[in-house]
Specification:
This protein starts with a helix and ends in a 10-residue tail after the last helix. Strand 1 and strand 2 form a beta hairpin. It contains seven helices and two strands. The protein has a two-stranded antiparallel sheet with strand order 1-2. The chain has about 190 residues and is mainly α.
């Protein structure tokens, strides 16, 4: 009886080892190797650095090309977001633009002083201050949109159509992945 029980136990153990080995081989084929290791990670050539510096450089180029305009690139972006109705409050804008609340409030103050937006109390919740683009603000967005598009198109002029679409696809995929890891609420590593 003991011999049969040991044989059955041994067979189950061998079956489990074989299944684990097969599973590891199958998963290994589908799972790619890590993008970064201690051997290939550098501060000047990693995803975070490249994205951050590209973002900053894009803003610098846009700001330089808009230097003679009445509003800055950030102010234009703010008005554009309001025109799209993708943001209603200063907090919404700060989250979407990934911008500091204090700096954005100063930006909004200037844009409001120029007559491009109005702040109004929400009718649903008087504690909430909503932002509304004015007709003057819409006209400014319309006037500067071709300039901003020309800037973006110049930045992308070395890319083929396929490269542009692939870059957009990959950035959206990256954004989705980062959001799934927790985004603003903190990272949840698998």
């Amino acid at each position: 009886m003991f011999a049969k029980a040991n044989i059955v136990t041994d067979l189950f153990a061998l079956a489990n080892i074989a299944l684990a080995d097969i599973s590891a081989r199958i998963l290994g084929e589908f799972m790619k190797k890590p993008a970064y290791t201690e051997d290939n990670f550098t501060t000047g050539d990693n995803l975070g650095y490249l994205l951050k510096t590209s973002h900053n450089l894009l803003h610098e180029v846009a700001q330089a090309l808009l230097k003679d305009e009445e509003i800055s690139f950030l102010q234009w972006l703010t008005l554009f977001k309001l025109q799209e109705n993708s943001a209603r409050t200063a907090s919404d804008l700060a989250k979407q633009l990934r911008h500091d609340n204090g700096a954005l409030t100063r930006c909004l103050d200037k844009v409001e002083q120029m007559g491009f937006l109005e702040r109004r109390r929400s009718e649903q919740d008087r504690r909430v201050v909503e932002l509304h683009i004015t007709d003057k603000g819409r006209a400014k967005v319309k006037a500067l949109t071709p300039v901003v598009l020309a800037i973006f198109n110049e930045v992308l002029s070395d890319f083929t159509d396929d490269e542009f679409h692939e870059l957009n696809r990959l950035l959206k995929k990256l954004k989705l992945r980062l959001s799934s890891l927790g985004g603003e609420q903190g990272v949840r590593l698998p």
